[in-house]
Amino acid sequence: MKKTILAFGELLWDILPSCTVLGGAPFNFVYRVNSLGDMGLMVSRIGRDELGRKAFDQVVQLGLDTTYIQWDEHLPTGTVQVSFDEDNNPDFVIIPKVAYDQIELTDTLVDAASTADCLCFGTLSQRSEKARKTIEQLLERASQSLKFLDINLRKDCYNPEIVSFSLQKADILKLNEDEAHHLGWMLGVSHQNIPEVCEEMLARWSLEHCVVTLGEKGAFAMTAAGEKVYVPGYRVKLDDSIGSGDAFSAGFVHNILRGTSISRAARFGNVLGALVATKEGATSPVTLDEINMFRNQKFERNIYPDLEEFIN
């Protein structure tokens, strides 16, 4: 059965060295859940400028619903300057005071949140007071929804209060390895190793799952009941890693909403994330046939030695 998944936050242009592509973590996530057969609904705001018009047109071309994409008459459409290090890992300069900082609460948005199967949110979209109040009210209305928090810690776009509030509201926390250690330091959570971070986060907040993506080394996931799963990464030819973490999230949530095990959800997310890493940008198509073919290939795996005991 198709699930309805609402994703709140940034719809923006990633300005890469070689090209400019439409992105933003919640948008990348929505695109992927749609490609898996769910109804992904993007909640964002764009400027009534050239980039905004191009963004809207591309959203339509990608087959996504535009009902909850708002227009701003004064602020520009969001942009991010993206550069890469020698290992092809991205670095971001996120432009402030843009349209998605002013997402408004509307009656139709409230109705959507009250019936959605999942609400995805992060910290970047809470950097302004206006958008923060909107997501707070949506979270209150979405009492029956699974709350998926992609914490997405970006420089100058969060503070401890925003992080604590978000953790209090979340059912699933997803973060990367650097964010796991930084979050542990910021919140006074022991962060000597990944399982320890997850265990303390689950104990301190009312989370059902804690998931840490590890780039080329795969992902680790843990449940509130104490189940621990590690999925090694795939050795693939990397094009760029933009959107691979969002693809993992889409695959993981798609499975969890159907009651599958955390192990199966993590394995599927890992496959989808690896496939996206072999393509340019975050919204290159990945078909179900490609996913099945990938699963049947014999890839070498990148194993995180400290997590090998949790391979399932």
Notable characteristics:
312 residues; UDP-N-acetylmuramoyl-L-alanine:D-glutamate ligase; 37% helix
How would the blueprint of this fold be written?
Blueprint: E1 4-8, E2 12-15, E3 20-23, H1 25-35, E4 39-47, H2 50-61, E5 69-72, E6 78-84, E7 90-94, H3 107-115, E8 118-121, H4 129-141, E9 146-150, H5 160-169, E10 172-176, H6 177-187, H7 194-204, E11 209-213, E12 219-223, E13 228-231, E14 233-234, H8 244-256, H9 262-277, H10 288-296, E15 301-302
Parallel strand pairs: 1-4, 1-8, 2-6, 4-5, 8-9, 9-10, 10-11
Antiparallel strand pairs: 2-3, 6-7, 11-12, 12-13, 14-15
In the CATH hierarchy, the architecture is: 3-Layer(aba) Sandwich
Integer count of domains: 1
CATH superfamily: Ribokinase
The N- to C-terminal Cα distance equals 27 Å
User: Strands of the biggest beta sheet: in what spatial order?
Assistant: 5-4-1-8-9-10-11-12-13
Q: Secondary-structure element sequence?
A: EEEHEHEEEHEHEHEHHEEEEHHHE
* pLDDT averaged over residues: 92
General form: globular
Unreliable stretches: none
Report the radius of gyration as a whole number of Å: 18 Å
* Beta-strand percent range: 15-25%
CATH topology (level 3) name:
UDP-N-acetylmuramoyl-L-alanine:D-glutamate ligase
Folded structure, characterized:
The structure is a single chain. This protein has 312 residues and is α/β, with parallel strands linked by helices. The protein has a single domain, classed as Ribokinase (UDP-N-acetylmuramoyl-L-alanine:D-glutamate ligase), CATH 3.40.1190. The protein is 37% helix and 22% strand. It contains ten helices and 15 strands. The protein has a nine-stranded mixed sheet, sandwiched between helices. It has a four-stranded mixed sheet with strand order 3-2-6-7. Strands 14-15 form a two-stranded antiparallel ribbon. Strand 4, helix 2 (50-61) and strand 5 form a beta-alpha-beta unit. The longest helix is centred in the C-terminal third of the chain and has 16 residues, at 262-277. It is globular. The model has no long low-confidence stretch (mean pLDDT 92).
